[in-house]
Structure formats: structure tokens, C-alpha cells
Amino acid sequence: MQQKLISSRTRLVGLFGNPARHSLSPVIHNAFLKSTGIDAVYLTFEFPGENFDEAFIGAKRLGLIGLNITMPFKENAYKLMDNKDARSTAIGSVNTVKFNSSTGNSKGFNTDVDGFVSSIEDSGFNWNGSNCLILGAGGSAKSSVFALLEKPVKKIYIYNRTTEKAEKIKNSYSKEKRIKIEVLEGLEGIDPESMDLICNCTPLGMDAPGVSELLPIPDQWDLKDVLVFEMIYKPLETRLIIKGKNEGARIIDGLDMLINQAASSFKIWFDIDPEKKDIRGKLVNFLINKN
Ligand code: NAP
């Protein structure tokens, strides 16, 4: 479907973050808007943290359809919501906001959970009785653990260089849920064959100084029967992905996650499931040509 010209009727959806200008979200959402024929544009807004509250109130007053919120504003946004869904309340962070078109009231959501679950379900993974290892204890690890606790997994192991942060995630759950979580103090002595899913929620392997050549797991681990979930999408092939592919592992990469969480935000704003199949190619082209 052809996109309408921008006019006085065109509505706005935004991304608040810092940095935000490097984000792939405009590529995804503007493609979704074009394919659904919705008269709106998606733009990024990058500004200093001290301006967040005013910028948020501005978006609300100006009648934006909604916002995505990325680092470092997810917790700030959480505090400013008029309403929140159960998931964002449990996780304590908001990455998607919808403004009510009549009252302007904001409702906060966390679509990282949907992005994580959809990516794994698309791969045909069997949740039943599975052992899952989460590497890291930051924002994405927190939402991944939350997602796993909603599924019939057997055990969730969390390993983070700062053990207390992993313990904090565990302790944020009720006693019944906590039984399923085990915090690891190290990865030595762990049998990778006992793991069904290994998810990297650290920046190890990312295209950044000091981490790009690093693996978040011991090099000697054999990943042949594991579903490897890599959150990083820059580069497209991290050392973990290359290792997993060489050893015959099934792979979910950071683009799968990014597209699925974006589709979930789009559904919240417009109540439409956007077509995802052409988006990956667009993102790969964008990453190759623009960065
Ligand atoms: P975060 O909140 O900053 O957490 C990062 C975690 O990694 C922390 O637990 C931190 O450990 C650990 N870490 C940082 N540097 C490390 C190092 N050098 N060695 C070992 N551990 C280290 O980040 P996040 O938001 O969870 O994001 C994590 C990764 O996922 C990032 O690469 C991000 O770009 C990616 N991501 C991708 C998507 C997507 O849609 N594909 C979505 C979200 C995030 P400490 O606790 O000890 O500091």
C-alpha cells in the first residue's frame, strides 16, 4: 500500500532515548506504517536526561499517538505513567507508551517480554521442562527472566559478573517463583549440555571497544543442542552466534528480538498486527549501507 503524503492530518509516534539517533526503530515502524497505510510518522528524539519529564509532558500535550522509550529513560518513564499494564509494573520499566486520544492519559507497557517470547516461539522451542541460562542482570535480563517465569520451564539460571544484581532479580519474585531461579557465581563446572536455551543479555560481543571479541560463555562449551539467543544486533554475527552456528546450534539474533518487540508496540498503538516478513531484509540493508 502506498504511504500518504505528510499533511496536517499526519500523526506522530516518537522514540525517546539517549542515544536514539542510531536506532533501527524508525526503519521498522515507518515500514509498518507504510504497509498498513496509516497516516503517521515515527521519529526519534534525543535529549539530555534532565529534560525527560518536560519532553514527556510535551508529547502528552501535543497529542502524540504514543512513544517508545529506550535507554536510559525506561525507569523514568515508568514513574510518569498515569496507568501501567501488569508486565511493566512487575518489571518496573516501560518501553512503550500509548496516549489516550480523548484524555491524553498515558498507559505504559513493556514489549521486551513479548519480543523475547515471540522470538523463541517462532523458533519452535519447547518450553516444557527446559533449562534456561540468562547471562547478565540488566534491563533485558530482567524482562527475559520475567518472560521465562510465565512459561513451563524447569529452571532459570542467571549468571552476571556482579552476583548481587542477579540475586536482586531473583529476590524481586515471590517464594513460589523464586524456586525456579538459581543464581550462578561462575560458569565453570556448568554442563552446557544440560541447557536448552542460553540467552546473552550482556554487551559481550557488541561492536564496541573492548567487548567485540569477547564471548559471554566459556570457549570450550559445545552448543550443538542449544537454542542460542543473542540480544545484540550490531554486529549481526557476534562471536557467540558464529560459535553457535559452527557447532550446529539453533540461533535467534538481536534483529528477531527487535522486530518482534516493535510489532508488539505497533499492535498497542494501532491495534493491528503488522506484517513482519520484509522487515529483516530492510534492517540488514540499513545496517550494511548506513553504518
Ligand atoms: P544493561 O541494563 O546495561 O545490562 C547489561 C548487563 O551486562 C549488566 O548485567 C552488566 O553487568 C553486564 N555487563 C556489562 N558489561 C560487561 C562486561 N564487560 N563483562 C560482563 N558483563 C558485563 O543492558 P540491557 O539493556 O540489558 O542490554 C544488554 C544487551 O542487550 C545490550 O547489548 C543491548 O544492546 C541488547 N539489547 C537488545 C535488544 C534488542 O531488541 N535486540 C533489546 C534490549 C537490549 P553488571 O550488572 O555487573 O554491570
Evaluate the radius of gyration: 19 Å
Mean pLDDT: 94
Q: What is the string of helix and strand elements?
A: EHEHEHEHEEHEHEHHEEEHEHH
DSSP E strands, number = 12
Into which percent range does the helicity of residues fall?
Answer: 25-40%
Strand content: 15-25%
Shape from CA axes?
globular
Low-confidence spans: none
> Biggest β-sheet, characterized?
6 strands, mixed
Secondary-structure-based class equals alpha/beta
Q: What hetero molecules are bound to the protein chains? A: NADP nicotinamide-adenine-dinucleotide phosphate
What spatial order of strands do you see in the largest sheet?
Answer: 2-1-3-5-6-4
Number of helices: 11
Report the end-to-end length measured between terminal Cα atoms.
28 Å
Give a brief outline of the structure:
Helix content is 37%, strand content 18%. The protein contains eleven helices and twelve strands.
